[in-house]
Fold this protein.
Amino acid sequence: MECSKCGGRGVISIRYLGQVLCKECFFNYFQEKIRKTFVQQRLISKNDRVAVALSGGKDSTLTLYILNNLRQKEKFELFALIVDEGIRGYREKSIELAVRNCEFLGVNYHIVSFKDFFGFSLDEVVNSWPDTLKEPRSPCTFCGVFRRRILNNTARELNATKIATGHNLDDNIQTLFMNVVRGDVKSILKSYPERKISKSFVKRIKPLANIPEKEIAAYVLLKKIPVYFGECPYSWEGMRNLMRETINSVENFMPGAKINFYNYMLNTLSLMKKRFIGKIELKTCEICGEPSSHDICKACQLVQQINNFMKKE
Ligand code: SF4
Ligand SMILES: [Zn+2]
Ligand SMILES: [Zn+2]
């Protein structure tokens, strides 16, 4: 395989470009794409204080490296937030790598655990959740709600102006499809990158939002960035796996379908935002005081349920 640009030794085939690229040409292509995202979406402004949600996996670690690189040129502060959900045999290893990368780059980091924040680890919740309760169905439901709460509150306490996450193109499309088939318009609107519906929410940025997972994995491996490739023992969420397979089949049949769909989603959400975002009314959670669309926010509802069945044990 020859590189389509320079004739060198090709290392990656990018089907939607109809090109095979060598290592150097792939790095240039990848870095230029990221640079354009930062400029076009104005992801970072001078004097920002950015918290990277760092897990130790490839996506968030690459986000950390990219932002660290950028802060050499732009003036903004950077630190990492590492959430320890309490998943034995999995999270310890990824945290170890996350810490190692922060120390290597000289980036400050903070570790916050589910246990300290909520009083229980994810393993404890999963092990004591009664079989008879069907909702919420998967550990990912607790995990996602609690992780978002910890990230937002800790980032806010530490005066962050933005939270950067490592969500990639594949994650974004899978989530959108899942919300579409569930008919969950509110969640779709909430996923719009420019949403800012309450001062209590720290703005989120996703520098890798338009990069396919395959390219991120290739970049990290070719750059020899130490990341954790282990899989969470709870990552069996059936619906997401089905979406992943379906979307990959469409991409195989029609290369470029993922990025076309992502752009379509951004345009549509931009129109929907004009119509709906101003009308989303948020209440204040009666328990924790955080903004919520219900009288009691999702995190507090889940905590109440968990405390109830833990007491019964
Ligand atoms: S796969 Fe699910 S349970 Fe595991 S870390 Fe991700 S969201 Fe949490
Ligand atoms: Zn080349
Ligand atoms: Zn609450």
